[in-house]
Amino acid sequence: MKHRGRLVALAAGTCVLSIYPAFADEYHLTVLRDALLFGLFAVSLDFFWGSTGILSFGHATFFGLGGYVMTLVTMTSGLPAPSVLGLFAAVGAPAALAAIVGYFLLFGGVRGSFFTIVTLALSVIAQQLVISWSSVTGGDTGLLGVPPLALGGYEISGAMATYIVVAVTLIVVLLALRALEQSRWGKILIAIGDNEVRAAALGHNAPARLTLTFVISAAVAGFAGGLYVAIAGVVAPDLIGLLLSTEVIVWVAIGGRGTLLGPVVGAVLVQRAQQEISSMNPSLWPLILGCTFVIIVFVAPDGVMSIAERSRMLLRRRSA
Amino acid sequence: MSEVLLEMKGVSVKFGGLTALSDIDYSITSRSLACIIGPNGAGKSTFLNVLTGTLRPSIGSVAFRGRDIGGLALHRISRLGIARKFQIPSVFPSLSVAENMDVARWGAAREPDETDVLEMVGLSARRDVKAADLSHGEKQWLEIGMAIAASPKLLLLDEPTAGMTSQETQATAALLHRLKRHTAIIAVEHDISFVRALDTDTLVLHQGRLFRRGPFSEIEADEAVRDVYLGRR
Amino acid sequence: MEAAVTTLLNALTLIGILSLVGLGLTISFGLMNVTNLAHGEFLTVGAYAVYFTQSFGGSYWLGLVTAPLAAAIVGCALEWLILRHLYEKPIAAILATWGASLVIQQSLELVFGLGGKPVLPPVQGALDLSVAAYPAYRILLICIAAIALGLVLVLVRRTSFGLDIRTVIQNRTMAEAVGINTRRVYAIAFAFGAGVAGLAGALVSPLTTVLPQMGVGYLANAFFVVIVGGAGSVAGLIAGSTFIGGLTSVLNYQMSPSLVQAIVLLVAILIVRVRPNGLLSTAGALR
Ligand SMILES: Nc1ncnc2c1ncn2[C@@H]1O[C@H](COP(=O)(O)OP(=O)(O)OP(=O)(O)O)[C@@H](O)[C@H]1O
Ligand SMILES: [Mg+2]
């Protein structure tokens, strides 16, 4: 029942995304495109946080790493198919880092708040390294002129083309992760989240499964980061830092943890609100963001969409 | 005919100054049924914890089918074919009854066919209910079902009948006698009527020691065992 | 020789600050099991309190007294409004305190305006230590931090309130059974930790420019001080601070601060992996 609801929501979302270009001008199309890229990033976090219950407070490390790696590869001259290579690297490097971190922490029994704090530190470390290694990363200002995506000698630039690439990628990733969550893999992850020792006593290798989930999540984040820099044309330290790491948490929390589609909606809505509010008064946004964190926890711990679901249940109960 | 399945040699477990198990020698053959009794804190759960890898013996060795399993990770030991029902039911509350059973089956080294274990434990009508919504008794049965689902070679049951009615207790005893044809079973139990219904090889643990071992009829007649239970020793 | 003495004194300055900041985290993270990401802001509030006092012509010393009070009040408010409801929900507490941290930062900016604020030290110039000259204020800072830590130790070990805290921490239900108001003890302990962090903020304020975001820089370090040292004991706290502060000071002598921060955190993570219960634990790695 609930699963069918989500599939319907995904279909509806797909419709909206395919109709939107007919009504929007180029500017709005690019705005939505960028929001969807961050939505893809939010999906990556939700895949890990939602299915394991473990919160990564430094997920921008993987998004930013993907971005920087993509930049470095595509800006190296003389490589064949730089975009393809770049995207492979943007997926591979974060996945490898996540494997190391996961082996280190998850196999070491680090869970809960400890995991959150260590990943928070990871984000701080990444940002500091990027800033201090300026000969490669461009330091504080980052790097300009990241080449656009090119596939088979065909350059993908312009609002429409990039929008389509992003929208299609997002839908494919959503479907794939959803299938994974609904498979045996997802069920076992839920079991591990409920009671890890019990799952292990039934023969499931919990650390291995958690680590692999973390790796998949980081790979998707890195992919989103790689796409983002190629489309935006710039890379900068704020793509890898603590602030983005926490903003993505808000997107997921608002959209509804564990729903995959919700975080995309959360990302789009929150970024829209951010633009509106920042255009009124730039220093207001962090204040509102902070309040949002607190309010979510107390008012809508399952995301804003769950409020709709809850009120519908309430109505049904009343009419029954 | 039946080989030695499990062998414990000189196993001791210490928690700081407290000796929870001391110098246990024990072995069980495949397809047999044994029962462990003993007063509270005698070391019964600790005994099972050593077998499942939850605890590592301070001294001594545990071999399963000739292989030393001391210090092996929990899931590895489980995959060798040892399943356990915990004393406190610890099913997965977010999953449905059927999914709980699936997760149990999927953990086995060679995945068993989907037999109707739910039928056996009387939960087939509740298969789509979330485990969180089960009553305490139903959770007990689900725990037992999950332990059976993996078709283990050794089945460990920690107080399977706690909180059951006397009818259910008898049904459980009958179930264990049926299962004994496929697997070795060690059941830890307080309920003497259940142990009597099992009427099998019985171990008495007392203050971490293997105090007596023998058929239940002998154990029941033993004065010293009564003294232990009445706290006279 | 001169470099060694300077590095040692730098290390002592940092160790003093980190110990004071870490104390509150040892209490909240180590003992109450709640992750407070707004802890850095107590330091910031303390620093602003000194700036505020001085802007009215008050002395640094008056600021040093108001800072812990201001931070304790903010801590009390945070505990009462938010954390109290979230002791059983670890992730919710993490999210809510991060939100609170942003709110406090931004409120400070709205109230005091953009940009860094200067704070004047109570003493100027350098002290000649025969082998090296060292800023007089930093020496003062080391002394104040040492005295404050000594007082904290006495408070925790020797007073009835310290006993209450330790009882509650060991067993909350038991403490309730013997008639300790655990809620109040939690609130007071939390506010106390916040106040001490505020004191740290007052102490660092003359050394840097006072900014709303200054606390965030201490957050990760303070957590690792507590984790590396072994959460929940004053001895562990000092061990952790000595390790992180010492390493930072030694490395600072050779490379850029960003790189140092990155390396220190990486080493701290390695230690957490090898000794999950902290440097001082005798239990060792759990497997
Ligand atoms: N993890 C542990 N740490 C410290 N002591 C423990 C631990 N587990 C068990 N003990 C102690 O070891 C002794 C044996 O405990 P165990 O749980 O094996 O008893 P039991 O026979 O199962 O009792 P019950 O009938 O109450 O279940 C008890 O004194 C118990 O307090
Ligand atoms: Mg027991």
UniProtKB/TrEMBL annotation, chain A:
<keyword id="KW-0472">Membrane</keyword>
<feature type="transmembrane region" description="Helical">
    <location>
        <begin position="156"/>
        <end position="177"/>
    </location>
</feature>
<feature type="transmembrane region" description="Helical">
    <location>
        <begin position="87"/>
        <end position="107"/>
    </location>
</feature>
<dbReference type="GO" id="GO:0005886">
    <property type="term" value="C:plasma membrane"/>
</dbReference>
<feature type="transmembrane region" description="Helical">
    <location>
        <begin position="34"/>
        <end position="55"/>
    </location>
</feature>
<feature type="transmembrane region" description="Helical">
    <location>
        <begin position="212"/>
        <end position="236"/>
    </location>
</feature>
<dbReference type="InterPro" id="IPR001851">
    <property type="entry name" value="ABC_transp_permease"/>
</dbReference>
<feature type="transmembrane region" description="Helical">
    <location>
        <begin position="282"/>
        <end position="300"/>
    </location>
</feature>
<dbReference type="InterPro" id="IPR043428">
    <property type="entry name" value="LivM-like"/>
</dbReference>
<keyword id="KW-1003">Cell membrane</keyword>
<dbReference type="GO" id="GO:0015658">
    <property type="term" value="F:branched-chain amino acid transmembrane transporter activity"/>
</dbReference>
<protein>
    <submittedName>
        <fullName>Branched-chain amino acid ABC transporter permease</fullName>
    </submittedName>
</protein>
<keyword id="KW-0812">Transmembrane</keyword>
<feature type="transmembrane region" description="Helical">
    <location>
        <begin position="114"/>
        <end position="136"/>
    </location>
</feature>
<feature type="transmembrane region" description="Helical">
    <location>
        <begin position="248"/>
        <end position="270"/>
    </location>
</feature>
Automatic annotation (TrEMBL), chain B:
<keyword id="KW-0547">Nucleotide-binding</keyword>
<comment type="function">
    <text>Involved in beta-(1--&gt;2)glucan export. Transmembrane domains (TMD) form a pore in the inner membrane and the ATP-binding domain (NBD) is responsible for energy generation.</text>
</comment>
<dbReference type="GO" id="GO:0005886">
    <property type="term" value="C:plasma membrane"/>
</dbReference>
<keyword id="KW-0067">ATP-binding</keyword>
<dbReference type="InterPro" id="IPR003439">
    <property type="entry name" value="ABC_transporter-like_ATP-bd"/>
</dbReference>
<protein>
    <submittedName>
        <fullName>ATP-binding cassette domain-containing protein</fullName>
    </submittedName>
</protein>
<dbReference type="InterPro" id="IPR051120">
    <property type="entry name" value="ABC_AA/LPS_Transport"/>
</dbReference>
<dbReference type="InterPro" id="IPR027417">
    <property type="entry name" value="P-loop_NTPase"/>
</dbReference>
<dbReference type="GO" id="GO:0005524">
    <property type="term" value="F:ATP binding"/>
</dbReference>
<dbReference type="GO" id="GO:0016887">
    <property type="term" value="F:ATP hydrolysis activity"/>
</dbReference>
<keyword id="KW-0813">Transport</keyword>
<dbReference type="InterPro" id="IPR003593">
    <property type="entry name" value="AAA+_ATPase"/>
</dbReference>
<dbReference type="Pfam" id="PF00005">
    <property type="entry name" value="ABC_tran"/>
</dbReference>
<feature type="domain" description="ABC transporter">
    <location>
        <begin position="6"/>
        <end position="232"/>
    </location>
</feature>
From TrEMBL, chain C:
<dbReference type="GO" id="GO:0006865">
    <property type="term" value="P:amino acid transport"/>
</dbReference>
<keyword id="KW-0029">Amino-acid transport</keyword>
<feature type="transmembrane region" description="Helical">
    <location>
        <begin position="250"/>
        <end position="272"/>
    </location>
</feature>
<dbReference type="InterPro" id="IPR052157">
    <property type="entry name" value="BCAA_transport_permease"/>
</dbReference>
<keyword id="KW-1003">Cell membrane</keyword>
<dbReference type="InterPro" id="IPR001851">
    <property type="entry name" value="ABC_transp_permease"/>
</dbReference>
<dbReference type="Pfam" id="PF02653">
    <property type="entry name" value="BPD_transp_2"/>
</dbReference>
<feature type="transmembrane region" description="Helical">
    <location>
        <begin position="60"/>
        <end position="83"/>
    </location>
</feature>
<keyword id="KW-0472">Membrane</keyword>
<dbReference type="GO" id="GO:0005886">
    <property type="term" value="C:plasma membrane"/>
</dbReference>
<keyword id="KW-1133">Transmembrane helix</keyword>
<feature type="transmembrane region" description="Helical">
    <location>
        <begin position="95"/>
        <end position="116"/>
    </location>
</feature>
<comment type="similarity">
    <text>Belongs to the binding-protein-dependent transport system permease family. LivHM subfamily.</text>
</comment>
<protein>
    <submittedName>
        <fullName>Branched-chain amino acid ABC transporter permease</fullName>
    </submittedName>
</protein>
<feature type="transmembrane region" description="Helical">
    <location>
        <begin position="136"/>
        <end position="156"/>
    </location>
</feature>
